[in-house]
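Morning - adenosine-5'-triphosphate inputs below, output right after.
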Amino acid sequence: MPDTSIVFDGVEHSFGDRRVLSGISLELTQRRIGIVGANGSGKSTLARMINGLIIPDRGAVTVNGLDVRKNKRAVRRDVGFIFSDPDRQIIMPTVAEDIELSLSRTIKDKTERKTRALSVLSEFGLDGHADQPAHQLSGGQKQLLALASVMVLGPSILVADEPTTMLDLRNSLMLRETFAGLGEQLIVLSHDLDFLTDYDRVLVIDDGQVVADDEPGPALAFYRRAMA
Ligand SMILES: Nc1ncnc2c1ncn2[C@@H]1O[C@H](COP(=O)(O)OP(=O)(O)OP(=O)(O)O)[C@@H](O)[C@H]1O
């Protein structure tokens, strides 16, 4: 079990007069947790509460003992977030520069930063792409770059919102393998149910509520039946 924890206590949230989440009380301590649910069921809203991108109207979210409402900055250091569209996250023109930007807070020396960036690129399967314009990478490579840029910041938790939507089967398998090798706690939202089959726990969200919470086998079977 990771020594991280995410706790939702009586969380409710509405956008305007539309209730999007209700009655959410969860303790997320397992290393790899998947979240599934129909479009618009509230998954992204729930995920964004883990790093304070959305603060709930009612109830509290606590990450590693810190109330997200009061400790947004500290929580953001602990929680890395990757979006389904990596273009939202890639900032710098070249691949290496994007990693170097993430490293700039922790490594002040430029040469050292460049050396470390090259080794990070190699860890994430992007060897040989350092000087390539980031926008020229394939969708899967961009996803890996976004992931690498987040992971070098040293989060203890990674939240990934539909990380495989833009990926073909090969890149999706590559990302699955990369995720499997990470030591950090992982919270993954996915419509690709196969991606979650070996996870420790899967939550099924329906209309803003947790309707199943189990090991992947029974949870995904429940979801498949509900969607049929
Ligand atoms: N910023 C916002 N303002 C108004 N409504 C929003 C906002 N963000 C989400 N919603 C609404 O909240 C509901 C839940 O959205 P959410 O993105 O959490 O669903 P989701 O389960 O992640 O869906 P998907 O699988 O399609 O990504 C939807 O009806 C959506 O339209």
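Note: The pocket of adenosine-5'-triphosphate is lined by residues 15, 20, 37, 39-45 (CB under 6 Å).

O.
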